[in-house]
Amino acid sequence: MSIYKKRPDVIIKNGKIVDGSGIPAYYADIAVIGEKIDYIGNLDGVDAGMIIDAEGKYVTPGFIDTHTHSDSSIWINPEAQSSVRQGVTTEIVGNCGFSMRHTINVPFDKGGDGIVCVYDLANTDTEIPKGSFANVLKKMDKMGASINTAWLCGHNDLRVIAKLFTEDYTEEQFKIMEDFLREAMEAGYIGFSTGLEFDPGILSRPAEIERLASVAAEYDGIYTSQMRDEGTYLFEAIEEFLNVIRKTKMRGEISHLNVKYDNGIPNDYLNKAMDMIRSARNDEHLNVYTDMLPTCYGTGCAQAMLPPWLYENGWDEARKILASDEGREKVKKDMDRYWRFLNYGQWDRLLRIITPHMPEVTAMSFEELCKATNRDPCDCFLDVFMKTETIEQVRSIEMVGTMFREETMVESVVKDPIYLWMSDSYTATEEGSARTGNMSDYMGIFHFLIRYVRELGAISIEEAVNKATYRAAKHYGLLGRGLIAEGSFADINVFDLDNLRIEATFTNPCRYCSGMDYVFVNGRDVINKGKHTGIRSGKAIRRGKM
Ligand SMILES: [Zn+2]
Questions:
Q1: In angstroms, what is the span from residue 544 Cα to ligand 1's centroid?
Q2: How many Å lie between the centroid of ligand 1 and the Cα of residue 195?
Q3: How far apart are alpha carbons 496 and 464 in whole angstroms?
Q4: How far apart are CA 333 and CA 351, in angstroms?
Q5: Measured in angstroms, how far is the CA atom of residue 69 from the centroid of ligand 1?
Q6: Which end of the chain has fewer surrounding CB within 10 Å, N or C?
Q7: What does the pLDDT look like over 315-374, one tens digit per residue?
Q8: What is the pTM of this model?
Q9: Helix/strand/coil (H, E, C) string of 81-140?
Q10: Cα separations (Å) of 380 from 292, 322, 325, 347?
Q11: How far is the CA of 68 from the centre of ligand 1 (A)?
């Protein structure tokens, strides 16, 4: 009989608790009252609103995905279907410099309730009203979602707001970027993100990034970066990132280190990159981590293959250039950037092109697309752009491709203490407008657990859970998250590791995972006996607030 006298809303009994801190799993019962964990211990004989017998199962904190782009998809998938079914209860959104973009057709327009959440990047005449970043959080509060979201303020968005499409900024433009960044940080954004291989951040100089990051640093924000180069200039790009951290002393994250082999750098690049980050942590005491999709393949932004001059006079002009033989040849000769291996002719590594506006392209593998259109790969690739009508649609085209030659390379990174788990995904649905066609949107954390814990035994369950919960929560400054502890938010998963199943395949990618028995978000059962209950108990997390 327990000494515990209160009546909890939920009791999870007999589970094996992997608490997120990395300590060995232990057996205990958990009582949840309201949105918090109230008690951990023996709850024999205590009654509750809901009692779950977790015998033979793991009980872990809800997973924290440190890098997603669901800032665009959550509005059409507030139930966060693909994420929460994997036990992801919190996503860090607004990565790669994009935080107010939409890549999938968002069904509410600007204004309406006085809130601007999304805008058309192509329309540079659009004035983004002050208060927009704060209003995104308010809009999230009002809509409600099945997961928590924590927001980064994106550099590319700030540049668009300041109408800055050149290398150098004017003081007036900087002031606009600074004001909007301050507004975001004051509203509770958790930091500042850059995407320096993408338009228009690609044009910026390091001094601009340092200056803006210093603003976010005043609020104890984190700095995350899709670096300026992941190929030929990888090491210079890591140095550029570290210089921001040296200068600002911020917590920092190098986003998706799934840098590609044969991409203009010697093949020991990965070890060397990891060494640089490790030494920044150990020798210089900089608080930096890295993350990546734990698979041999990864996703990328297709536009980043194109030379910026192609679209400097607008997308209509770019289409004309791509339609002329001469123009197209000029583009083909100027594609030594980003996924450079494509420029070297390794088109077999481009697995699929994903375009929300051209489902017939998304439906096929890239190889099938080339065959169906009877085009050589480079022309087939450029044809997709030529048929795309707006720069906004161009920005939404994604590629899935082979990053690593061998799985052992992935394994060496995910095992490393400097690695945090992430999916680089959009929360997606099996059907409807949030169906994305990208397998990794449907399986990221399951692959991490199934492959590296269950099948290969490369990392322990405690270590894997730590990388996807408490270590991430601490680094990103999410208070009260990522830990099974009294007083923590009751973001809790209950599952049997042996029962986790990935249903998505390359040919049939839009399938939810199965095997997660219960997922609690702020104390509410969003997944109950494997089924989504429709409950939207997630919060828009504010920096520094419980
Ligand atoms: Zn990303």
A1: 24
A2: 8
A3: 15
A4: 22
A5: 6
A6: N
A7: 999 999 999 999 999 999 999 999 999 999 999 999 999 987 888 998 899 999 999 999
A8: 0.92
A9: HHHHCCCEEEEEECCCCCCCCCCCCCCCCCECCCECCCCCCCCCCCCCCCCHHHHHHHHH
A10: 29, 12, 14, 11
A11: 6
